[in-house]
Amino acid sequence: xxxxxxxxxxxxxxxxxxxxxxxxxxxxxxxxxxxxxxxxxxxxxxxxxxxxxxxxxxxxxxxxxxxxxxxxxxxxxxxxxxxxxxxxxxxxxxxxxxxxxxxxxxxxxxxxxxxxxxxxxxxxxxxxxxxxxxxxxxxxxxxxxxxxxxxxxxxxxxxxxxxxxxxxxxxxxxxxxxxxxxxxxxxxxxxxxxxxxxxxxxxxxxxxxxxxxxxxxxxxxxxxxxxxxxxxxxxxxxxxxxxxxxxxxxxxxxxxxxxxxxx
Length: 263
Description:
By secondary structure, the protein is an alpha/beta fold. It has 9 helices and 11 strands. It has helices at 69-77, 102-115, 127-138, 154-160, 163-171, 175-178, 184-187, 210-218, 240-258, and strands at residues 2-3, 10-11, 14-16, 26-35, 38-46, 53-58, 81-85, 119-125, 145-148, 196-201, 223-228. A 9-stranded mixed beta sheet has the order 3-4-5-7-6-8-9-10-11, sandwiched between helices. Strands 1-2 form a two-stranded antiparallel ribbon. Strand 4 (26-35) and strand 5 form a beta hairpin. The chain is globular and about 45 Å long.
């Protein structure tokens, strides 16, 4: 068992494997961070042969932080610590569901990674992808951003898919108040010169692919846009190795680019 120093709560170690990954043993450490009096449920994947980076994964509006657990497992086998957490009010995290708290809570988790003397990289899916952009724009400590199937802004999304507003009003009581903080199109230009990659399936049934195209046009260099043929919103219907290798190679290439002491 490992005890979280911030909360005193304990978590059991778990192991898992991922398709296509090296056969390293993956260690998962569940723990809680206390943010504004709320216990936020987290999981840290710890690699056997760690490098100095930690990838923070951000979930979407459904609250499922393991929705691409196979990707997180794979990145761990490549030497990265991987930390994900459940936003307040979802599943086993305390507090009330408030969209306005998504960015400040994620910012607190970045600070936790920095205090652990690891370099933070941010990856998010769906709403988490838009949050990843906003978080990277707001936090200079973040080295780079991987946005999977993000939307440009809630306002644009509601224009394109009006039924999403009705669904989200049932989840977040502060939707109208909180959604401007996740206006990725407005802030994506602030990420440069740190690297950004946008990855979207051309068969995404939830968020139109053009949202990533809008974000790509608004971003500075270095930036990449990868549209994956046939992929749905969660990339669950394509070979997992394709997304895993795309993300891992991009981070490895750009870690060299962003090293403070590199020439």
